[in-house]
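Title: Prediction job returns without error message
Component: structure pipeline
Severity: low
Priority: P3
Assignee: unassigned

Description:
Job completed but the reporter wants confirmation the result is attached to the right record. Sequence as submitted:
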Amino acid sequence: MNYLNERNEVLNCARKIYKSGLVTGTWGNASVRVVDEEIMVITPSGMDYNLMEAQDMVVVDFAGRVVEGQYRPSTELPLHLRIYQQRADINAVVHVHSTYALSFAVARKNIPVILEETAQVIGHEIELAEYAHCGTELLADNVIKALGNNKKAVLLANHGLVALGKDIAEALKICFIAEKTAMVAINASSLGAIYALADEDVLLLNRKFKSYGQAKK
C-alpha cells in the first residue's frame, strides 16, 4: 500500500472531525496533497467514520483519476482538486458541517474576526461562497473565487465550512477556531452588539503568531 503516511493523516483527521462533532453521519471530508507529486489522498464517499481504515483512503491524481483505492472518492473531489490546482501553498483541505459555522452559512453572513486567536490562526474574516450544489464544478468555482490567493477558510452557503492549511494539522485547527469564533459571535450577540477587531490589529496579531512558540532546533 503506497502513501501510508498520507493515508493515516487523512484517516486520523476524519476520525477527529467525527468524534468532535464537526460532522455527523458520513458528511464532511478531508484530503492531503502528496508533496512533489500531482497526487492527493482523500476520504472515500459515504463511509462510516468508525469503520474507516488507512487502506480505505482513495489516492487520486490531479486529473481526477483514481490511482489507488477500492472505493469512490468523496463527492467533493472537484472542490479539493481545484484548491490544490490553484493554491500551491496549500497541502491539506478539511470540509466540515459544524453547527455554529453552519449557522452563519445558512444566515449567509461572514464570520467576523472577533477573537485574537481567530486573527492569529486564520487572519481574516471568513467569507461566504455563493450557493451551488454539493460536488459540482460550480461550487468549486465559487469557493476559489471567495478564497482568492491567500485566504485559509471559507463558508459554503447553506452547506458548511472549508479550511485550508500547509498541513492537515493546520487545516483542522482552523476548523476548530472557526467554529469557536462562530459560537462566541452568536452567544455574544444575545448580549448586544459584537465588535470585530480592527484590520490593523488582525494583521499584527497574524504576523506575530507566525513566530509564536519555541524555535525549531
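Comment from assignee: result matches the submitted record. The chain has a mean pLDDT of 96.
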